[in-house]
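Example 3.
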Amino acid sequence: SQQGEEDPQALSIQEGENATMNCSYKTSINNLQWYRQNSGRGLVHLILIRSNEREKHSGRLRVTLDTSKKSSSLLITASRAADTASYFCATDVDSSYKLIFGSGTRLLVRP
Amino acid sequence: DAMVIQNPRYQVTQFGKPVTLSCSQTLNHNVMYWYQQKSSQAPKLLFHYYDKDFNNEADTPDNFQSRRPNTSFCFLDIRSPGLGDAAMYLCATSRQGFNPETQYFGPGTRLLVL
């Protein structure tokens, strides 16, 4: 079964704008990860946030986690055409190393 | 560069004709996973190996099998592909089976069933 729901399903922005994607999940977690998938390719890990962390940064990426609301957001600042991809959140399953992925947000950055 | 390799990138098979997808890794990771991803959907875990130990997901159809002859290689066998098995198949690895741990994905094999 699917753990995470992502919102919006699709997002189209102009280059230079910020993109925000949201992920909600159902059960308690130890960590949440974000992955990027370029069209027709595998997934690439972007960032991991632990359940005791509220915010994390990596370059142009900012991730927040609100465990009370069971939600996370991924912010990409100053977007570039190369950021065009699908973005998935993933949470651990039953405190194991397995991951369950959300439904994904398809981001289009227009030049 | 250390990486996860999947072959072939595209595979066409006929309805009911067995097919094998392969994955190899140079990362020397203990855990290897197989995911199925249908169009515009989330990757869905089929099964994984922790070292030689096979772990099947409860809802993975019996039609899907896997082999891991050594640390570097893992195979996905589809015994009798149906039209509904057309999808992208992703192989991934993680280092030791700890939590938390990131996963490293191959480029995927897109399977078409005619």
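Chain A is about 0% helix and 55% strand. The two ends of chain A are 37 Å apart (CA to CA).
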